[in-house]
């Protein structure tokens, strides 16, 4: 299996730069997920690795070999697309073995490799069916099987689950994670769904506007986001952001006043910032405590509550500011109620007005 190295990768379409100098090292056997909002460049970057898009400048190495000008079929890569791309007139067996047959591989070897892939993906009962006779999840497994039989150095997945319903997405996430564990191969996976990223990845690469915002393990990005964008993108529900102003500064700490919460003040161990500067206080839904349990209390009007069994998510507001609070299910808040929650300084994040992390 192979490692990958991207050094100064750029992509222009005419005068439009869509990938803006990406540097990234991917270890052999690592499961890496590119995540970000639509249009951030994650699929373009994947297609550049595959050889389906020309690299304007920079260096792409796979297994220590420069690949910029190598044909896609010779890069040792297999790609699984969002749309499955199965041949409708071929059976599952024929679809899975087509690339090998096209490459002139012997029939007995094709049969053996297709059989091995079918066993791994539990496709053996479906080998003689046509794509129209399969469910969406089964078609996606065939597309993955077609990639497996090529025995690639690297698997590339481009939003492979976006056409599936919610239940099938969960099932296929488990299947892909199991597949990675069994094959022990390098996987690069593109998604806009941060839940997929958090549950599948060894390493997450967060992209925005053609640049990498942060690279790290899922829980490291969740607990220690580099900036407000990453803090808001990683985690479900997203982090709450409360506008505030720095009203006092002493050695090694600042005091901020929340804009929409009766001048509630919170003192944080931050060395930067100037009195009068606008800032943003970030609080995860699960880090709100019961009133009186933290350093400050704020009162919210409940809009609606989602009851999910062991927990609830309470969607509330104050001064036009929408917040999400996680509560134990034993508390049954509903609309037209008011709740008081607390914020602890040691659970709060703070960002400047440009989104840079201060703490």
How does this structure look, described?
It is a single chain. The chain has 2 domains: 4-233, 3-Layer(aba) Sandwich (Rossmann fold); 240-352, Beta Barrel (OB fold (Dihydrolipoamide Acetyltransferase, E2P)). With 359 residues, the protein is of the alpha+beta class. The mean pLDDT is 92. It contains 8 helices and 20 strands. The strands form 4 sheets. Strands 6-7-8-3-9-10 form a 6-stranded mixed beta sheet, sandwiched between helices. A 5-stranded antiparallel beta sheet has the order 13-12-11-14-20. The protein has helices spanning 42-50, 92-102, 107-120, 136-148, 166-183, 194-200, 218-223, 228-233, and strands spanning 4-13, 16-26, 31-35, 57-62, 65-66, 77-80, 154-158, 186-191, 203-208, 211-216, 240-250, 253-258, 265-268, 278-283, 289-290, 296-307, 311-318, 321-328, 338-343, 349-352. It is found in: Cell inner membrane. Belongs to the ABC transporter superfamily. Keywords: ATP-binding, Cell inner membrane, Cell membrane, Membrane, Nucleotide-binding, Transport.
């Amino acid at each position: 299996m192979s490692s990958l190295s991207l050094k100064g990768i750029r992509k222009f379409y005419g005068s439009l730069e869509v990938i803006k100098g990406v540097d990234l090292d991917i270890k052999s056997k690592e499961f890496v997920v590119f995540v970000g909002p639509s249009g951030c460049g994650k699929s373009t970057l994947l297609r550049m690795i595959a050889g389906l898009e020309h690299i304007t400048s920079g260096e792409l190495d796979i297994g220590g070999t420069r690949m910029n000008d190598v044909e896609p079929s010779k890069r040792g890569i297999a790609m699984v697309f969002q749309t499955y791309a199965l041949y409708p007139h071929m059976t599952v067996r024929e679809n899975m073995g087509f690339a090998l047959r096209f490459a002139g591989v012997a029939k007995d070897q094709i049969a053996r490799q297709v059989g091995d892939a079918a066993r791994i993906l539990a496709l053996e009962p479906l080998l003689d069916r046509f794509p129209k006779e399969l469910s969406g999840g089964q078609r996606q497994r065939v597309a993955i099987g077609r990639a497996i039989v090529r025995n690639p150095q690297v698997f590339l997945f481009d939003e492979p689950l976006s056409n599936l319903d919610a239940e099938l997405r969960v099932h296929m996430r488990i299947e892909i994670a199991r597949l990675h564990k069994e094959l022990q191969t390098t996987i690069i996976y593109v998604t806009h769904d941060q839940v997929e990223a958090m549950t599948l990845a060894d390493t997450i690469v967060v992209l925005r506007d053609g640049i990498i915002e942060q690279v790290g393990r899922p829980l490291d990005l969740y607990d220690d986001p580099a900036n407000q964008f990453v803090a808001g993108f990683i985690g479900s529900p997203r982090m709450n952001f409360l506008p505030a102003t720095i009203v006092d500064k002493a050695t090694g700490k600042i005091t901020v006043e929340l804009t929409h919460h009766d001048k509630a003040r919170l003192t944080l161990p931050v060395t930067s910032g100037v009195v009068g500067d606008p800032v943003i206080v970030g609080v995860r839904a699960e880090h709100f405590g019961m009133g009186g349990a933290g350093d400050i209390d704020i009162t919210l009007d409940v809009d609606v509550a989602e009851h999910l069994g062991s927990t609830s998510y309470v969607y509330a507001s104050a001064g036009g500011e929408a917040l999400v609070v996680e509560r134990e299910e034993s508390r049954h808040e509903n609309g037209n109620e008011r709740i008081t929650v607390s914020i602890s300084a040691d659970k709060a994040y703070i960002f400047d007005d440009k989104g840079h992390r201060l703490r």
